[in-house]
Specification:
about 140 residues, 7-stranded mixed sheet, 7 strands, about 25% helix
Length: about 140
């Protein structure tokens, strides 16, 4: 499985997804439906190698946005802001507790964190797209 696929599967376990929406919505990769409420993980450009060791091992990162399409308005915006605060705290707790996406045997997760607060990307008549930028770092052994 790809690293971004492992991240998506991991984020789908976030307990706040079900609290934010009455019915469970799936988490897609690079696809956000027009109807609320739904989520996606979207890879964003970033230097993948943080550090390379002389033996070929490396510390790597995947930068990504976690996005949602939700209803918006005065009350809904407060709920959305609260959701993204909880999501950010959940990622911090996961790193602290060493709970990470499941990777293949050549990779070892190091951290997962939000690098921004949640913010509105665009709004339409009744819905808005929100995003929070995140980063996942892992150690990768050199391929033999």
């Amino acid at each position: 499985m790809s690293v971004i696929g492992a991240i998506r599967d991991f984020i789908a376990t976030c307990p706040y997804l079900d609290e934010f929406e009455e019915t469970f919505s799936k988490v897609d990769i690079d696809f956000l439906e027009e109807k609320p409420t739904n989520y996606m993980v979207e890879a964003v450009p970033a230097e993948p190698i943080v550090k390379r060791y002389t033996n070929g091992d490396s510390i790597r990162r995947v930068a990504f946005h976690f996005c949602s399409r939700v209803f918006w308005g005065d009350v809904e915006n407060i709920d959305t802001s609260e959701f993204y605060e909880h999501f950010q705290e959940w990622l911090e707790d996961c790193t602290r507790n060493r709970e990470f996406p499941i990777l293949d045997s050549m990779k070892e997760a190091r951290s997962i964190r939000a690098t921004t607060n949640g913010y509105m990307v665009d709004a339409e008549a009744k819905t808005a797209r929100y995003a929070i930028q995140c980063e996942f770092t892992y150690f990768q052994k050199r391929r033999q």
